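Appendix B. Raw example, untouched.
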Amino acid sequence: MVLKKSNFLLDGAAPYWTVIAVGNAGRQVEEWDCIKKAVSDVLLSEGATITHHHAVGRDHAPWYMHEKDTLLLRALMSGKRTLDPNMIMNPGVLFPHAEFRSMCKL
């Protein structure tokens, strides 16, 4: 396991963890999903954000709705509404759930 810190800001730094482990053949995706959920749930329960300046999309989408700071959601929705009102660019990736689409009137 390796920890790298970057993007030092007034309210903290961005930790990047790299974990290398042997998975069970044929079950690596399932194992990743389990680890991803456990870690993401802990991050949000401790008040952390699920995103970073480049971390949006399918992997993090299930946790967006639970962000305490809705500024992120409002900014993403505004951008999507403005730049892709017909939802033709990567449909269902940034906002895969119906709640997102209804919130931003997409």
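End of appendix B.
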